[in-house]
Design brief:
The longest helix has 10 residues, at 34-43. It is built from two helices and four strands; from the N terminus they run βββαβα. 18% of the residues lie in helices and 26% in strands. The protein has helices spanning 34-43, 69-72; strands at 6-12, 17-22, 28-31, 55-58. The mean pLDDT is 84. The chain is of the alpha+beta class. It has one domain. A four-stranded antiparallel β-sheet has the order 3-2-1-4.
Amino acid sequence: MGRKVKVRFWMDESEHTLHIYNVDTDEVKKIKDEKKIVWFLNAHNQTVNTMKGIMDGYDVLGLFKEQKLLDFVPFLKRKQ
């Protein structure tokens, strides 16, 4: 398993969007899919209703996962 990516996250209730900030790279991803938001918050013991302010956690969705070249070219992978 890879290293855990530290993130900060918060809800923008006006846009119904979860913002996830990568602490290491300063990159921000926005999630609007309700199911993904619920899954991410549940992994951090939060809900949309209990979420207040900016929280610290880890990238449980793999949004900031380092991509390998073979991930982009699946036909080059060896069959095992």
